[in-house]
Design goal:
The structure holds two protein chains of two kinds. By secondary structure, chain A is of the alpha/beta class. Chain A folds into two domains: 191 residues, Response regulator (Rossmann fold), CATH 3.40.50; 142 residues, Response regulator (Rossmann fold). In chain A, 43% of the residues lie in helices and 14% in strands. Chain A has 13 helices and twelve strands. In chain A, the strands form two sheets. Chain A has a seven-stranded mixed beta sheet, with helices on both faces. A five-stranded parallel beta sheet of chain A has the order 2-1-3-4-5, with helices on both faces. In chain A, a hairpin with a 4-residue loop joins strand 11 and strand 12. The radius of gyration of chain A is 23 Å and the shape is globular. By secondary structure, chain B is mainly alpha-helical. Chain B has a single domain, classed as ABC transporter involved in vitamin B12 uptake, BtuC, CATH 1.10.3470. In chain B, the strands form two sheets. Chain B has a two-stranded antiparallel sheet with strand order 1-4. In chain B, a hairpin with a 2-residue loop joins strand 2 and strand 3. The longest helix of chain B is centred in the last third of the chain and has 27 residues. The chains are: A alpha/beta, B mainly alpha. The interface between A and B is large, with 43 and 42 residues. Chain A: This is ABC transporter substrate-binding protein. Chain A: Belongs to the leucine-binding protein family. Chain A: Keywords: Amino-acid transport, Signal, Transport. Chain A: It comes from Ammonifex thiophilus. Chain A: It holds the Pfam family Peripla_BP_6.
Chain lengths: 394, 355
Amino acid sequence: MQRYRWLILAVMVLGLVVVAGCGGKGAAPSAEGPIKIGGIFDLTGATSDVGVPYAEGVRAYIDYVNQHGGINGRKVELKEIDYAYDKNRAVEAYNRLVKQERVIAILGWGTGDTEALKSMIAADKIPYISGSYAESLADIKTCPYNFLVAASYSDQAKAALKWIKDNWKGQGPPKVAFVYNDTPFGRSPIDDAKKFAKEIGIEVVGDEIVGLTALDATPQMLDLKNKGADFAIVQGTSNLAATTLKDAKKLGLKTQFIGLNWAADEKVIKLAGPAAEGYIGVIPFAFPYDNAPGLKTIKEYLASKGQKLEDKNQKFIQGWVSAMIMLEGVKRAGNNLTGEGVRKGLESLKDFDTGGLSAPITFTATSHRGTDRIRLARVENGKFVYITDWISCR
Amino acid sequence: MRLRFPWTTNCGLFFTRYEEDQAFLPSRAAKIKVLCLFALLLALPWLVGPYPLRIASQVAIMALGAVGLNLLTGFAGQISVGHAAFMGVGAYAVGALTTKLGLSFWLALPLGGLAAALVGAFFGLPSLRLKGLYLAIATLAAQVILDFAFVRLEPITGGAAGLVLTPPSLGPLSLADDTVFYYVTLALTMAGVIFALNLSRSRVGRAFMAIRDRDLAAAMLGVDLFGYKLRAFFLSSFYAGLAGGMLAAYTRVVTPEQFTLDVSIQFLAMIVIGGLGDVLGSVYGAAFVSLLPIALSYLAQALQGVLPQMVNLLSACQTALFGLVIILFLIFEPQGLAKLWRHIKDYFRLWPFSY
């Protein structure tokens, strides 16, 4: 009997080995089957107000491509994970996508998590288009595989500041304040913008910190009033911008608010109502009601799904464009479907036309800033109306 | 030849000395079992891919933290809802020491543990006067204060952006390699588990349990209440600090949101689900709580084709599900997974006579 015990134990260990062995290893990227693209989105976290439509846009574009025969004859598969704006979970999601699902490129989301991932992205050679346009991600030395599909937050803020300077008619230098949230995303453009303001002769009068999910910004707005800010640049998402605008209106502020990319979309108007009138947004992507030719494609695609373009917002288009640029890189990689191949593919984009959905995108081997141009739009009668053409701070 | 059911590990064992009775592994069968388990854990990198291996490392780190909390809450009976914050102290200490002072990770790790232990012991000071709910609130204060410090002590902690670590190396081997990292974590967690197991059958462990069961009676028996409570806090936070340091090396970022109240509650969930006052139970609990969200996200992915809305729903349900699991455990098996495992073992051991 003593011998049998050994035998049984041996069988047991062997059984476990087999079970574990079968369940384990992720498949290597293959030349057959669908092309796998990863998605790390915020569907339930602090920025889910803009994260959900963005993810929808990405899904829609990939579905659209598959409807039209995929890329080079292969379907595209999106492996998406919700990370709830939690860096820890983003790291986990990233590892799963790269090591288990073996995706060749990733569409990511936040500033903090993309920055946390950048060393891994560089080591694993995974082309990464983030929803974040933080200046730090444009540093080609530390982020050789990150691509920015819109003007960086710093460039956006600078372009807005330049517009302020050029259109200022009051006496003395214009007084500008910054309203932002205390995350890497919120803080990202502030230092650069302040430096630029000083250079071009704009007075910076203060900083106001408002939480991403805050429901009250009265103290901050009171402070802004006391400081007599003529302009305030808002870096946050729709919720933050709406809260800011509502409380500013309540207190009768004369300040002109200018929201950067994520703080300016239709949702702000919906949430803030009349308080949003006159609000200026930095707009790097088209609105669904623009008449860009690229919108026709989206409209047709949505019609095939029984949906309407009017129900979608600008963040949907932003997701659509991000996926479009990534898949263009994948297409140009041809048969060299590796991280390096896709990077080369993306770097061959020159004045790539997204159908007017964004400024033309150019990547080179030395710069992954897709563009530095944005448009400004002002809310008039509950709708963003462009007040400038594509402008940049340069 | 002794005729015996092969699973039995302690049938027919008669001890004649206390040392034998209290031995770490009382029988040969137990030794064999542990050796097999150990071999399996060592062989894991060859059995599974890199992603499951990372999950295994994560479970090991969480298990280390959970064992620490179990020493404090399960053995010494002192509740703590600030465990994640103590873990954060360790992580930030390791992060700051390696990135700002350029210290070696291997030196920073024990220092991080020590820093967490000192902070933990400091916040354990009120435990002499406070019990139960009051102590829970006092440790909650620790959590809130430390959370605040993580965000505001920018020169040390990097504020909201946190610290980004470079992966430490072990001679020619880099901890960026999943296999190397796994072995390091495994070794550390095993050491932690064995230490805790040994502690629980030592004088200190018995003192902890005496305090837990009735502190007044323990004091009458000559147990130094204050000293042992502080020791429990010190030890528990030391474990948390080590786990935090390893977590820092694992995610390579240290940010405030990794160490929030939610995580403290998760640790409490781990030891409740695993089994209060059971060292191995905390390991089971840590595995359960760490694997549940991953299993859920796989489920969501599998269901995506059928029910597209499930993705959003399931990720939102996660927290609710934790709550449900804890309630179910409290009702049906208050002694947790450890007891459940024992029931299963007993069933097979006693089969076909269930008594």
